[in-house]
Specification:
By secondary structure, the chain is mainly alpha-helical. 51% of the residues lie in helices and 3% in strands. The longest helix has 16 residues.
């Protein structure tokens, strides 16, 4: 199994596990990590991102959102519909996904205690709606 497939399966399990059975990541935690990523990350035009070696917070955001970025491209067998209902165009980079999450979360501080999924998925749906096909 490829590294990409492991990431997809891990994130799918985290996203679709019942909210009460796993240790959810509070939105405030991912928000803090992503804000750090935007400060210390070196974003290249080919989509790669480099971090200083001691930046575990920024790496947390990068890892989580990289997996989500890959997962939104998974489609249902037979229907071809995106599994998460997000129609992200080709070329969108992880730093753009981070900025979308940051903007969405900052506008909703009353929800920072909620599971990250409760803010991240609506942010992506709002930014990349599928519409009718």
């Amino acid at each position: 199994m490829t590294q990409w497939m492991f990431r997809v399966l891990a994130v799918a399990g985290a996203l679709f596990a019942p909210m009460g059975t796993a240790q959810p990541i509070p939105a405030s935690q991912l928000l803090s990590q992503c804000e750090r990523l935007m400060v210390v990350g070196k974003f290249k035009t080919d989509g790669t991102i480099s971090l200083p070696g001691n930046e575990t917070a920024a790496a947390g955001c990068l890892g989580y959102l990289s997996a989500i970025h890959d997962l939104v491209n998974v489609v249902e067998t037979g229907t071809g519909k995106p599994l998460l209902g997000v129609c992200m165009p080709k070329g969108v980079q992880v730093d753009q996904v981070a900025q979308i999450f940051i903007n969405y979360a900052r506008a909703r501080p009353e929800r920072w205690h909620e599971d990250t999924r409760a803010l991240l998925l609506p942010a992506l749906h709002a930014s990349f709606p599928c519409g009718t096909r």
